[in-house]
Amino acid sequence: MSCLELKIYPNPILRKKSQKVQTAGDEEKKLIDYMVETMYANEGVGLAAPQVGIAKRIIVVDAGEGLLKMINPEITSREGASTLEEGCLSLPGKSVEIQRP
User: Fold this and answer.
1) 3-class DSSP string for 51-96
2) Does 2 reside within a domain?
3) Displacement of CA 56 from its chain's centroid (Å)
4) DSSP state for residue 22 in the 8-state scheme
5) Is pTM, for the whole model, over 0.85?
6) How many domains is the chain partitioned into structurally?
7) What is the domain range of residue 69?
8) C-alpha distance from residue 37 to each of 8, 11, 34, 46, 56 (Å)
9) pLDDT in tens, 80-95
10) Rounded to the nearest 5°, which phi and psi values hold at 88?
């Protein structure tokens, strides 16, 4: 496997609406594997498909509690909010406090 090229802001793909994945076939599984490798190689904790130039609703996350691979993720319920400092592989060297549900 090899790493994918990260798209850096202000690349327009980062502002484009991602498309819902209709079927999770071999192409999507391969993309997810490449995304995981790219995330770890760049010392990230999460990576979305648009960050590697693919406008699909796919993300991978490993915030220390195990790897999550998500296709078409949705927030189905919310309880309160938390504020944490976050960075982004598409905004190298930047981190800001973000409030999330």
Assistant:
1) HHCCCECEEEECCCCCCEEEECCCCCCCCCCEEEEEECCCCCCCEE
2) no
3) 10
4) S
5) yes
6) 1
7) 12-75
8) 18, 21, 5, 11, 18
9) 999 999 999 999 999 9
10) -145, 130
